[in-house]
């Protein structure tokens, strides 16, 4: 997720504001991260949830404008907030369990799923179609580069 994180932060200052445990495992939590300045007009928070259990692990994050969080805290309607989470999940593929009695044939293999949600706005402008295709190409490049970084980090770049 480092590449996604790099894109979200755009070399901005990042400060962890708080951490809320979501269970009994200390690493299972929701972290509130403040990024500023996100751009000239907005300050941005990132909500990031991490969890690990016997099924696997996941990391999900979503940017949310500070103004939006503030409005919710003072009683605004949280159901109107647009949340576009992105993240990864790593889980067992079942191979190890099917070969548990024969450790010589047991394999440590996992399934990695990566998910991105990105809002693309368009209109009936003829240039809009071209802009959307450029965004799709950009997303494809980000996704490909992110998967390569994950494979390198897990030492499975030959797959």
Question: Topology, please?
Answer:
Blueprint: H1 2-9, E1 13-21, E2 29-36, E3 44-53, E4 56-65, H2 66-73, E5 86-92, H3 95-98, E6 110-115, H4 126-153
Antiparallel strand pairs: 1-2, 2-3, 3-4, 4-5, 5-6
Give your account of this protein's structure.
- The protein is an alpha+beta fold.
- The chain has one domain (2-122).
- 30% of the residues lie in helices and 31% in strands.
- The protein has four helices and six strands, in the order αββββαβαβα.
- It has helices spanning 2-9, 66-73, 95-98, 126-153; strands at residues 13-21, 29-36, 44-53, 56-65, 86-92, 110-115.
- Strands 1-2-3-4-5-6 form a six-stranded antiparallel β-sheet.
Rg over C-alpha atoms, rounded to the nearest angstrom: 19 Å
Number of domains: 1
What is the H-and-E element order? HEEEEHEHEH
Structure annotation, total helices: 4
Mean pLDDT: 76
What is the tally of beta strands?
A: 6
Termini, distance in Å? 19 Å
**From the helix content, strand content and strand pairing, which structural class follows?**
alpha+beta
| Mass-distribution shape | globular
Low-confidence stretches: none
Q: Order of strands across the biggest sheet?
A: 1-2-3-4-5-6
Main sheet makeup = 6 strands, antiparallel
Helix content: 25-40%
Domain HD-Zip IV C-terminal: 5-156
InterPro entries: HD-Zip_IV, HD-Zip_IV_C
Protein name: Homeobox-leucine zipper protein HDG11-like
Pfam family, one: PDF2_C
């Amino acid at each position: 997720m480092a590449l996604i994180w790099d894109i979200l932060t755009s070399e901005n200052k990042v400060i962890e504001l708080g951490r809320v445990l979501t269970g009994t495992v200390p690493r299972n939590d929701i972290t509130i991260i403040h990024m500023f300045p996100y751009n000239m007009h907005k300050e941005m928070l990132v909500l990031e949830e991490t969890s690990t259990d016997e099924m696997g692990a996941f990391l999900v994050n979503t940017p949310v404008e500070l103004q939006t969080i503030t409005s919710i805290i003072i009683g605004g309607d949280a159901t109107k907030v647009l949340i576009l989470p992105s993240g990864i999940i790593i889980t067992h593929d079942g191979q190890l369990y099917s070969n548990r009695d024969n450790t010589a044939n047991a394999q440590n293999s996992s399934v990695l799923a990566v998910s991105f949600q990105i809002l693309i706005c368009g209109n009936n402008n003829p240039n809009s179609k071209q802009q959307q295709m450029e965004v799709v190409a950009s997303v494809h490049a980000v996704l490909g580069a992110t998967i390569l970084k994950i494979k390198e980090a897990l030492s499975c770049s030959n797959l």
